[in-house]
Specification:
By secondary structure, the chain is an alpha/beta fold. Helices cover 30% and strands 25% of the residues. The chain starts with a helix and ends with a helix. Homotrimer.
Length: 267
């Protein structure tokens, strides 16, 4: 297997195009915990390719992640790649494994990327469980970066204002906020949640930011959408549980799918 992550992504993209029977793709979506059922609403499935069939991919280790890439044709005639699952930094496979899917999508010609995730809400007074929130910016507390060397990438606007405006045309009520990423796999402590609120965070999770940085390096425009699945630690008095995250995703899958389906044809 090639050790260069960019070459490996090119090989995976070639294999993906061949397996899907399509030469190009308009948009890619990465579905976070609990979001997988929403994929069914986005369009008609052309093909599904298991991660294990493509160079550099591994099956997801987290419950609620599907482990396949679905090629879809939308109602508006667009061709979308839907990543049903992702690799997380806490799995110990390294940063390149975390962003391999994004680099593969970019190598396959994708110029617009939608990153979804399940997130803890840091502002329960304004963002309730089950609410989608557009990511306007992020704070990277993972201690990692997918870019090494002297490649300097401007992150003034990681998450496209243009794409956020398009989503707000579909749903004017949708909120937006700052997503904070930790490495995981432990959930945050109440003290950390208080710190994040002070820093200006609105959402917290264990994914997305490294993928977004890799996408920007590749010149791909990024839309980020979090689904608030629980209040942050200490804000509700209840312990945090991954099954709760998945349950909220299942309960809101139809709404999320409709939102994404409408958005994809406008991006």
């Amino acid at each position: 297997m090639n050790n260069d992550p960019y070459t490996l992504a090119g090989e995976a993209a070639a294999a993906l195009r061949g397996a899907a029977g399509l030469d190009s793709f308009d948009v890619a979506l990465v579905m976070g915990s609990g979001w997988v059922p929403a994929a069914d609403a986005i369009g008609e499935t052309v093909s599904e390719i298991p991660f294990a069939d493509l160079p550099g991919f591994r099956a997801p280790a987290v419950a609620g992640h599907g482990g396949k890439i679905r090629a879809v044709r939308t109602a508006g005639g667009r061709t979308a790649l839907i990543f049903l699952g992702r690799t997380h930094l806490y799995e110990g496979l390294g940063v390149d494994a975390v962003v391999h899917g994004v680099r593969t999508a970019a190598a396959a010609g994708v110029r617009t990327l939608v990153l979804t995730n399940a997130a803890g809400g840091l502002r329960p007074e304004t963002q309730g469980v089950g609410d989608p929130v557009l990511i306007s910016d992020h704070i990277n507390l993972t201690g990692a970066n997918p870019i090494t060397g002297t490649t300097f990438i401007d992150l003034t606007e990681v998450y496209s204002r243009r794409l956020r405006d398009l989503v707000r045309e579909i749903d004017p009520s949708i909120a937006e906020g700052v997503y904070v990423a930790f490495r995981g796999p432990t959930y945050e402590t109440p003290a950390e949640i208080r710190m994040l609120r002070t820093l200006g965070g609105d959402l917290v999770g264990m994914s997305t930011v490294l993928e977004a940085i890799a996408a920007r390096e590749a010149g791909v425009e990024v839309l980020g959408v979090s689904l608030v699945t629980n209040p942050g630690a200490g804000l509700s008095g209840e312990p945090l549980d991954h099954e709760e995250v998945l349950e909220v995703g299942r309960a809101t899958a139809a709404r999320m799918g409709v939102l994404l389906a409408k958005a994809v044809d406008r991006l």
